[in-house]
Amino acid sequence: MASDRAALDDMLPSIYAELKRLARAYLGRERADHTLQPTALVHETYLKLVDQRQVDWRNRAHFLGVAAGAMRRVLLHYAEHRNAQKRDGLRQRVTLEDALATLERSAAVDFLDLHAALERLERLDERQARLVELRVFGGLTIEEAAEVLDVSIATVKRDWNVARLWLRRELA
Amino acid sequence: MTPERWQQVARIAGDALELAPAERAAFVAAACAGDAPLEADVMSLLAAEDPTGRFLEPDRPPDRVGPYRIVREIGRGGMGTVYLAERADGQFEQRVAIKLVTRGMDSEAVLRRFFAERRILARLEHPGIARLFDGGVTPDGRPYFVMEYVDGTSITRWCRRQAPAVAERVELCARVCDAVDYAHGHLVLHRDLKPENVLVDAAGASKLLDFGIARLLDGESASATQAGERAMTPQYCSPEQMRAEPLTTASDVYALGLILYELLAGAPPYDIGGAPPAEQMRIVCELEPKRPSAVAPAAAAKRIRGDLDTVVMKALDKDPARRYRRAAELAADLRRVLAREPIAARPASLGYRTRRYLSRHWKPVAIAAVLLAIVTAAVGDALIQGRRAQRHFDEVRQLANAFLFDFHDAIATLPGATPARELVLQRAREYLDKLSAEAGADVDLKRELAESYIRVGDAQGLYYESNLGKTADARASYEKALKLLEDVARDRPGDARVQADLANATLSLATTYQATDGRRAGSLIQDAIDRLTRLQAREPLTAAAQLTLGRAYVGRAEGLLRAGRPGDSLAARNRSVDAFRAVVAANPGNAEAQRWLSITLKRRAALYIGEMHDPARARDDLREAMAADERRVAREPANAVARLDLALGEGYLSAALRRSGDLAGAADMLGRAMEIRRDVLRVDPQNVRVRTLLMSDYGRLAEIALDRRDPAAARAALAQAEALAAQIPPAAAANPELVEALAGIRRIASTIH
């Protein structure tokens, strides 16, 4: 199992590349007023990079876990550069900006606020912060998150509920 | 805060979350044991709970939908998400597009409309239209549609990439018009035509997506919501769509005009993306767009100036009545431009433009202008009638079809009468009547008209069931259809199809009498049976005619049962079973016949149980019916209707088993039916019919318990039934089936005490 995870980490560069490529392909397809969801992208990356008939759901969970972290960092990059681009007058209507906007709209939060709050939570309880990352950026189910974090489903449910209370109070 | 302190807070808050909200404060106070800051911290955390529970919850694409495995997302809009999918069972290498409806839409209404329209939509078979294969509902209650997957790019993007000549663009657009007109001929409007819904593949062939889907998704809300909130893309809305008025073929023509404009000019006539709703409304309804040649690049502008400008501007007229009435007329003019022939469209006259200007700014003038237009049209009508009878005739015919359209659409979208709709209905009938008067010896036209009358009658009868006045209207329409068909039959005595059509129309007429005049209904049904029997003696019946015969026997069986003649009813029931069996034997794939057969077998079983006291025969029928139902459920696991059909059989079988003394078997079988109904109710709690059935199920469970001398279990079952009844919305409380079911339960309850 440990070597599996190392292998997954080795895939990180291709995960980044695929996330960005997919985001571009989305815009290229120019379908009906699409909104790009980060979780959908992560899932699609997985479908693209791994033949899902060959792996069981546990491996899928670990893959999605790695991709969730990648997704968060990619979005952070875009969020940090978003304002600079606007100032430069660059109308760069591309790639993951849409995904960022979709996430912010559906969760009703500012990404940078969420990111900062998660970093604070990380200092209080690393596992809870990682759980939120898995759920929000990777779209992992409770069961998948339990597999990745190697704790019981009941614990994940409890962590998830308490962490959301904390975040909602922080972001209010 | 320190991590240690947070662990403490999180532990108490986590425990508190598992309690009911009212119990939390006391629990937290006890758990904090006097540590006031700790208690305050936990309570402020609990106060941050999201009442919807949706905060940060991920919305991930499903892995499977029905029997399909999701490959990837290919699009997303306000109504739902589109996925590329393939058969999960590996039976076929078929790739499809699946549109999964957004969570939170009125799923029940979407599904109801889908099942009402699926046959019409499935009949749209045109190379330029992506097929709709199927639909269903996911376990969590979201409806989905399975459609042909088209690998292409939007028409505007394709033109930007390929940079075809103006003539090629015009021809491409004409082909799109052909496809739209084909659908219009099948009484289906698109309602959401835009470049993203017109894909062009690598070979340069165009295909329209989502035909008829907009209405399934939008439905009733169309009139109730503000134009700005509607699901349609405002950029491609017609003025009437913006004003939430009824849509017609001319509305689709407008959208085609917008696409054509963009292909020719290289840009849309206006860009309203960021404008506030009021401004969008003004732009779409009032702003006169520039001619495409004024916007197009110089090289193309030369070719566009003149006729193409005129054609585009006619398609984009703010007034639907001044546009091309049909997509085929637009296509014809486009092809005339290509052939350098004179086009039918005329540039708008100065007088017209003046009137339009005044009408926008001065209401009395607007009214006068409309009156003038009506008078002029009437006078013009008379003139044309005298001079060019044939031409006039064709026009009236087209108008009638267009009106039928309006009617059909409006009626299906908005249950409940409005004066406007009745007016349209009346107009449709007037035109049909006018046409009938002029039909003369045109046999094919009479046939077409009869079909139209039956369609009108179906709508009147189906949608206004409770309204006696409308039943009479439906009756009148069926009678007109009959009269026309009788004319045709006189002209063509040997024509088998017209005999079958006559029987079908007679049967429809019979249904209008069923509630009020059983004798008349019975004699009409007999007429239909006699006619088909005579036909059958001459030549073998087609599948459609066999189905009609079977349905006629079903009608007779129901009538005889109501008249208290179960023995004769059984004889008629046997005939209907024979007829449906014959169709199924000859066409095993005929789903409609299979469904009729299975329903009829179940009804016959009910007769065996309730009247003949012959549970053994009932069991045989039910087993046959249920075997077919089970095959259907296996084929379409997400189809709620199929599952409910199966539950109906299981319920009947349970009754048969109880009659034959097998109480354990009866309870078991009833349990299976209840499981399906509970499932459906969970997804669709508003469904009063299923709720009623489930209530009756509990009543029957109580009866079985009483047979087994277990009054405690009976009481428990009856309590469940009452609990279900308590959740019924007051609006549905008067539903007769519900009242009857409730009375049945109370009756059983009274035998226990």
Please give a structural write-up.
By secondary structure, chain A is mainly α. Chain A has one domain. Chain A is 79% helix and 0% strand. Chain A is built from nine helices and no strands. In chain A, helix 7 crosses helix 9. Chain A is globular. By secondary structure, chain B is an alpha+beta fold. Chain B folds into seven domains: 3-47, no CATH class; 64-148, Phosphorylase Kinase, domain 1, CATH 3.30.200; 153-348, Transferase(Phosphotransferase), domain 1 (Orthogonal Bundle), CATH 1.10.510.10; 349-387, no CATH class; 394-539, Serine Threonine Protein Phosphatase 5, Tetratricopeptide repeat; 562-664; 685-753. Chain B is 66% helix and 6% strand. Chain B has 32 helices and nine strands. In chain B, the strands form two sheets. Chain B has a six-stranded antiparallel β-sheet, covered by helices on one side. In chain B, a hairpin with a 5-residue loop joins strand 8 and strand 9 (206-208). In chain B, helix 1 (3-17) runs antiparallel to helix 2 (21-32) and helix 24 (543-562) runs antiparallel to helix 25. Chain B is flat. Chain B starts with a helix and ends with a helix. Residues 220-231, 350-389, 403-421 and 463-469 of chain B have low confidence and may be disordered. The A-B interface holds A 29-37, 39-40, 43-44, 47-48, 106-107, 123-125, 128, 132, 135-136, 138-141, 158, 161-162, 164-169, 172 and B 1, 3, 6-7, 10, 13-14, 17, 44-50, 55-61, 70-78, 81-82, 153-154, 157, 194, 196-197, 233.
**Shape designation of chain B:** flat
Q: Report the span from N to C terminus of chain B.
A: 64 Å
H-E string of chain A: HHHHHHHHH
Count of separate structural domains of chain A: 1
The Rg value of chain A, from CA coordinates, equals 16 Å
What is the number of independent domains of chain B? 7
Structural class of chain A, by secondary structure, is mainly alpha
CATH architecture of the largest domain in chain B: Orthogonal Bundle
Task: Specify which chain pair forms the largest interface.
Answer: A-B, 38 and 40 residues
The overall strand count of chain A is 0
How large is the share of residues in beta strands of chain B? 5-15%
Low confidence ranges of chain B: 220-231, 350-389, 403-421, 463-469
Class derived from helix and strand content of chain B: alpha+beta
